[in-house]
Amino acid sequence: MTRIVAGAWGGRVLQVPRSGTRPTSERVREAIFSRLDSQGVIAGARVLDIFAGSGALGLEALSRGATGAILVDSARGAVQVLRANVAALGAGERVQVVGADAVRFAASLGANERFDLVFIDPPYALDSGVLGQVLSSVATHLAPAGIIILESSSRAVLPDLPPQLMNRTTKTYGDTQVSFLEVAPKN
């Protein structure tokens, strides 16, 4: 069972796709959002959740004060679950659900599109080259003080980051590794 941890929808249960997804555990989500809360970056944030699955990360951000989110997944079952979760929370005006390939979607973002928080939680078996393409595309759409939260297997080697990003910190929670990426300072 996956629940929203805190905020306006705290305790609400989310549907989870039947197969093909690995929902972020409540423990890991709480750790991610405790860090983001302490930085004061959630309230008013514009959120992009790629490989959204149930939408738990993007919807948690909305529950805690983000103003809008785009939830992206390519699996038909996941998109149906995303729409059901958004409807159950009454969040339709603040959320856009997109059924699309992550690489193509990230590459198709408008030139002026900016996000404050980007959650990237791909399947652990995803090729690092594909993940690198997603990171490169999304990096150009990160707001100046924005953060990319990248979830991966603790055994995974992270892809090389595009030059405009830097890894602020990486934390490990059991078999899950969470990296907080930010815009790299210009020399």
Q: What does the main sheet amount to?
A: 7 strands, mixed
The structure class reads alpha/beta
What letter string, H or E per element, gives the SSE order?
EEHEHEHEHEHEEE
Going by CATH, the homologous superfamily would be: Vaccinia Virus protein VP39
The percentage helix is 25-40%
Task: Quickly count the helices.
Answer: 5
Pfam families: Cons_hypoth95
Organism: Mobiluncus mulieris
EC number: 2.1.1.171
InterPro entries: DNA_methylase_N6_adenine_CS, RNA_MeTrfase_RsmD, SAM-dependent_MTases_sf
Care to describe what's here?
The chain is α/β, with parallel strands linked by helices and 187 residues long. The protein has a single domain (2-183), classed as Rossmann fold (3-Layer(aba) Sandwich), CATH 3.40.50.150. The protein is 29% helix and 29% strand. The chain has 5 helices and 9 strands, in the order E-E-H-E-H-E-H-E-H-E-H-E-E-E. It has helices at residues 26-39, 56-63, 76-89, 102-108, 128-139, and strands at residues 2-3, 13-14, 46-50, 68-73, 95-99, 115-120, 142-153, 165-173, 176-183. Strands 5-4-3-6-7-9-8 form a 7-stranded mixed β-sheet, covered by helices on one side. It is globular and about 45 Å long.
